[in-house]
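User: I want to check something. If I give you two sequences, will you return the structure for each one separately, not as a complex?

Assistant: Yes, each is folded on its own. Here is the first sequence with its structure:
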Amino acid sequence: QVQVVESGGDLVQAGGSLRLSCTASGLTFIDHAMGWFRQAPGKEREWVSCINSSGGSTYYGNSVKGRFTVSRDNAEKTVYLQMNSLKPDDTAMYYCAARYLYCSLSWSQFDYRGQGTQVTVSS
């Protein structure tokens, strides 16, 4: 059974940093691209970032580019999202998802999805 589990969400002040983790089990981790999405109350789910299966390519949404960094540790079957210079607009539930081989901008194209971890940025 595949499980994707996010952790690391917290309440942080604007300008602060946070690192999210996502561990995937029950799948061949090295064969999967890993994506991050977020959804704020009353808003549509937004694609945040993705890292391909090898970790050699990373992609970011315009709203987080230059502030967030995605990385992965294939030995630990974990992907990370380092978030710096956080803003109140970054407040959302953050979701991790796995897709075979390639990144996608679409939530529905990911094969496995986590339940999310809450990030709240206070002003």
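And separately, the second sequence with its own structure:
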Amino acid sequence: QVQLVESGGGLVQAGGSLRHSCAASGFTFGNYAMGWYRQATGKERELVAAITSGGSTYYADSVKGRFTISRDNAKNMLYLQMNSLKPEDTAVYYCAKGRGSSWYMGYHYWGQGTQVTVSS
């Protein structure tokens, strides 16, 4: 079955950096878009970055220029490099599997989530 296991996250000061990793299994990783969602307390889950099976990327305006999504199909790994972090980036971050090869096709599996807390 599909499994998405995240690592990374933690507590960082504003302006700092963190890197998330997501180990995927149970499907042909290279055939699917992957994404990173986040959910802050009291807010809806939002897609912050996505990458197609071909490597094209999408970023929410709020993270554009600061976050970088990447994938290693040989290792079935997804990454999210987060730089210049802001307190408003505080949230639980989730790795997600796309329903198809493009980022806009929706997502239907999520990892367990990891907490990111950015202090001011």
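Because they were folded independently, the notes below concern the second chain alone. The mean pLDDT is 96. The longest strand covers residues 18-25.
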